[in-house]
Amino acid sequence: xxxxxxxxxxxxxxxxxxxxxVTLAQDYSKVDNTVNSYPKTFPxxxxxxxxxxxxxxxETDKVRAIFTWIATNIKYDLREFKxxxxxxxxxxxxxxxxxxxxxxxRYDLASKTLRTKKGVCQGYTALFHVLCDMTKVKCxxxxxxxxxxxxxxxxxxxxxxxxxxAVKIGEEWKLIDVTWASGAVNTQSGKFVPxxxxxxFFTNPEIMFLNxxxxxxxMLMIDKSPEEFAELPLFYGDYIKSNYEITFPNEGILxxxxxxxxxxxxxxxxxxxxxxxxxxxxxxxKLAEAKTDGNVTEFDVRLDAKSKGYLTIYVNNKSxxxxxxxx
Length: 327
Fold this sequence. Notes:
The chain is an alpha+beta fold. Strands 11, 13, 15, 16, 19 and 20 form a 6-stranded mixed sheet that branches. Strands 9-6-5-4-10 form a 5-stranded antiparallel sheet. Strand 5 and strand 6 form a beta hairpin. It has helices at residues 29-36, 45-55, 59-73, 78-83, 95-116, 121-134, 205-208, 226-231, 237-241, and strands spanning 11-12, 75-76, 118-119, 139-146, 162-169, 172-176, 183-186, 192-194, 201-203, 212-214, 234-235, 245-248, 253-255, 261-267, 275-279, 286-287, 291-293, 296-302, 310-315, 318-326. The protein is built from 9 helices and 20 strands. Helix content is 28%, strand content 27%.
């Protein structure tokens, strides 16, 4: 397995962070190249779906085409995010009427997202869902809790702050987060930075679990608990894009007592990569001295009186993982 745990050097996904597929990678370059030649705007959902249906026949290729076009053409709407996003509010007198109104709401939201070329997770997933419907791919939305902030380490998944997708390919359900695939928010400038990341495409459930906990536990597709989710560290996207795995420590809260060092172990870590770290209580970036023996790389994080708050590990100046320090 590629890795168990989570984005950008000083970027984090406001919608939020995710993981690479740990199954054998499939080459989607042909599909992506075709989609990248599409217009950046389409006059209607039907026109975009029609183009995809013309160019692709398999369910997988259609889903990839939808995923790639949305992730590379829709921008995250920070203003809408700060205002609370889209809320579904309507009355109904029967289950059938409820379903019809939900379908209409999804279509209208998808149309708006396509027209404005921006949205929050509800808009991304609505657009993805409607296009799947139009290309004859079964799709469901998965609302739940995301793990995206230092303060989330140790917290149970109760926020209900995100929504992602699953599609049925043959007899198997595949997980997708097209919102997180579109880019991230720069925490220094506060602006959305587009950056396509297909780690969110057909993501292994073990990996999706690390930052996604669905309201309906069945949609985990694995046997994991809310407590296990809470205990995870905060892992970032650049770690997910890599091929190495942090094997120790693997709990998000480090109870150190009087310890003066934290040992780290990484498997399959590439050579010529610089490891550094910083404590929020200190604010000073320090270089780590790593040693490799076979496929295991080890380094120590030194502790002193200022080693408080949260610890973040960087590789080549890009955030990899964060832990909460308790002493």
